[in-house]
Amino acid sequence: MKKIIHFMLSAVFVLFFYSSCFAIGVGDLQDLITLTARDLANQLVGPANVGPLPLNPPDFTGSEFAAGIFTNGLVDGLGINQGVILSTGDIFNAVGPNLDPSSGLDNAQVGLAALNALIVPGVTANAMALDFFLVPPARVTTVRFKYAFASDEYSESVGTGFNDVFAIFIDGQNIALVPGTNNPVSVNTLNGTATPLLFNNNTSGLFGTQYDGFSSVLKATATVTPGVAHLVRLAIADGGPAGAPDSVVDSAVLIAPATSFFEDIPLTHFAVSHTMGIFNAGITVGCSADPALFCPDNGVTRGQMAAFIARAENGGDPTVPCATPPFTDVPITDPFCPHIQFIKTAGISLGFADGTFRPIDPVTRGQMAAFIVRGVEGEPVGACSVAPFLDVPTNYVFCRHVERLKALAITLGFPDGTYQPENGTLRDEMAVFLGRGYLALP
Prior knowledge:
Elements: H1 8-22, E1 27-31, H2 37-45, E2 59-61, E3 67-71, E4 83-87, H3 113-116, E5 123-134, E6 142-151, E7 165-170, E8 173-174, E9 185-186, E10 199-201, E11 213-215, E12 218-223, E13 230-240, E14 251-255, H4 272-280, H5 302-314, H6 337-345, H7 365-377, H8 399-407, H9 427-439
């Protein structure tokens, strides 16, 4: 086994020199000297989703140098911009460029039995584990972790007994597996020979990190119960033959903040419960199936609005195809034609005076109020006697709809007392409106 010991003074000098002069490497690293295990848990799942704590977590097992928070991973080619880093040595050894083929630090830490079981007959040393309780938000039944596994064991130790390993245990079950297999993530199961499409070779120093190689961004998915505390353990360790455990050459894992089923809706997103609520109810299918995306920052078109409302009213996509165009600018081949036809028949949309629907136009907040109110309780009667918001006069065409939307607590408006009726609506905002209107979410 390679026995290369790096004194801390030298490591700090190399880090300072190369980070300052060349501005490369994983940036803004902070370890557990200045942070706590709760800080790391908060980074991954958000403060509101950590706890309650019937036991001691958030807690960590290992060296204070071996865990922390990082940024600038995308700049370095690692595929994850920011999150939590765990190492079998010192997280600051992640900083590039790759100057040493066998970089590492012996933390003199013990291994973990749960990781030993993944690399039988090997044993582990220098384990680093972060433990915390995850309490998923309402209606979140799927949690995804994205991560990249990196090591200086690549590629000279591949196929040998030196087999560093990483796992994500949720309630005791490891969900970090090599894609398409039941194999745990380790140097011997994920490398340039066994999984060439999932591996990035950095022996030439192409990427801005010290590690000789690292995986593509991998995903670990678990089914969870909203509101129930699930014990999460993220763990990495040096692996070696029994009697001669690896204790020097480092591996690390970079873990992004956890998401819901949709990979662009983190657990910390303000609309996570509403988004998953309308997904579970069949009101949305997202904007991409693989990867599963919701595109929360995209605007909503009138055609998409028709789809949302029709699914909410119908309990899914309408099954009656378009025999004739429901509006002059909606051909029967339009993917939203059945939805637009449905809401026209239901009296939820009347279209424009010229016979058009304008399906690709952005839906305004005023139009959105009309769609939802008509769907939830029908066309409101009468006229506005008092302006519901400062910028919604009583003679505004959708004043009565906005008034009802406010009365139903579907919208609260903006802090300045306005509603901004002619502005568009983003998909995450629409998820909140639909969740409140059709699912009685707060």
